[in-house]
Q: What sequence folds into this?
């Protein structure tokens, strides 16, 4: 029996490897985004702590130096939070780009797999045709031999 050999198998293999690489890139971009979000959460918690500390300073005996220090700390945290938000936004953009590249590569791979499936179906039809032709020849040969 004939063996199926897809003539563009090497291209399909390359597409699969590219897809695996893009999946890795997507995973790394996703991990980076989560890391940046975690940093942002920590900064926000730290800011909330400074704000709580400021309210405590305002309620008790007022020490102007502690209040100024707390306010400077809060202002510094606001700046750090803005900077971190920019980092989170950049990581989100990178994740979206990685997702789009992954989607594109997956579409290419699926297209080549469909082409392979169509080629395999054609191969099966050709094999079936050849088998039917052989059976017809055999039947025809045995029929003519029995007549003689």
A:
């Amino acid at each position: 029996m004939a063996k199926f050999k897809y003539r563009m198998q090497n291209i399909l293999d390359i597409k699969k490897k590219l897809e695996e690489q893009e999946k890795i890139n997507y995973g790394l971009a996703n991990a980076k985004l989560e890391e940046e979000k975690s940093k942002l959460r920590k900064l926000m918690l730290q800011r909330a702590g400074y704000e709580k500390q400021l309210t405590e300073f305002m309620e008790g005996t007022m020490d102007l130096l502690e209040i100024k220090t707390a306010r400077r700390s809060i202002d510094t945290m606001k700046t750090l939070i803005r900077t971190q938000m920019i980092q989170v936004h950049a990581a989100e953009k990178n994740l979206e780009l990685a997702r789009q590249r992954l989607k594109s590569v997956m579409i290419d791979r699926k297209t080549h797999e469909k082409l392979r499936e169509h080629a395999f179906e054609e191969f099966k039809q050709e094999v079936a045709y050849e088998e039917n032709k052989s059976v017809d020849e055999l039947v025809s040969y045995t029929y003519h031999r029995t007549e003689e």
